[in-house]
Amino acid sequence: MSIAKKEYKRITVKTLVDMKAKGEKISMLTAYDYTMAKIVDGAGVDVILVGDSASNVMAGHETTLPITLDQMIYHASSVVRAIDRALVVVDLPFGTYQSDPKEALRSAIRIMKESGGHAVKLEGGKEIKDSIKRILNAGIPVMGHLGLTPQSIYKFGTYTVRAKEEEEAQRLKDDAIMLEKGGCFAIVLEKIPAALAKEVADSVSIPIIGIGAGDGVDGQVLVLHDMLGMTHEFNPRFLRRYMNLFEDMTTAIGQYVKDVKSEDFPNSTEQY
Length: 272
Ligand code: KIV
Fold this sequence. Notes:
Helix content is 43%, strand content 13%. It is of the alpha/beta class. The radius of gyration is 20 Å and the shape is globular.
């Protein structure tokens, strides 16, 4: 039995609300598999998001739309098996909650039962209010997602900054208040002006987690493969790369190829 494991204090949705009240910033990163999730959790990240960005990062799709509920459950259950401390939030994928609240609830229940995740995330505001209510009524915690919502990319047409105009900014502020009143425990704000994100964070008591939403919010989220520099075509201003794993991995793998070809690997100590 691991004593060290017992010392870990699990992060809950309540921990996050308390962190906001205390002014402690929340760290969130994506993960989609066991090995990466183990590292992310061990490094002390508070929230692991099994994002539908798996559709891009893991499967190579251009958008997040193709990923299925079964695929999200596969990724989420791999992540859940790895974690000791972080809260695991799982995206409901496109097409599994927009059509009617009963379907939304069925999808959320499948995520919770089959993956062991701790909460779900849904993109959108008042248009999905009834779905959110249904899910919450079943005791499943919900994280909202406003601003640039990638599942609506074909409506927006581009991945540029959202809510720069007053009308859209006002709609976003109203949606954030609606999500808080409706019972969401946190909201992701993606790619909106920093001043607007701060205004939203100051107007609600639930945590606001930003991605490209500036420094006035309660926490930050990035896609793991982007911040580790494994992806290299995607270069938005908000992305800080902490490593250049694309280069490091290419060099290491290139060296392995050379070693195999030159018969340097395996050497006499690397065999039985
Ligand atoms: O799917 C995802 O990775 C996300 C983050 C960008 C917030 O929703």
